Amino acid sequence: xxxxxxAVVVFGTAGLLFWIIKPKPKKSLEVGFNGVQEAxxxxxxxxxxxxxxxxxxxxxxxxxxxxxxxQAYVNAYNNGEPQKELDKLNDELAHEMGMRVYxxxxxxxxxxKDLNDKDIIVNNG
Length: 125
Known about the structure:
- With 125 residues, the protein is an alpha+beta fold.
- 46% of the residues lie in helices and 14% in strands.
- The chain is built from four helices and four strands; from the N terminus they run αβαααβββ.
- The protein has a four-stranded antiparallel beta sheet with strand order 1-2-3-4.
- Strand 3 and strand 4 form a beta hairpin.
- Helix 3 runs antiparallel to helix 4.
């Protein structure tokens, strides 16, 4: 076997191994994070805006706040905001309302949770 053939075999094998074991994108490194990153704005399908009756809003003020957070997130998502901006919005919501919006892994639905990681509402749309 010539040196050229040996080099082709070595580099070909190395390339194949790298392709097989290349690093995969991480969902999140946060402990206990059970959400996923949103798709690229060009690849997204619009989310139907959530609705809540005034009666339900008056009956449960926490759910009403969570609904407003979910509306803000859905509006930003549908307007094509990148993941970085959605993360900033979530930071603002956490600071101002004590809630975060995330996409659940198990059913791919948007949900609002409080800062103690308890779900408050889930968007069915």
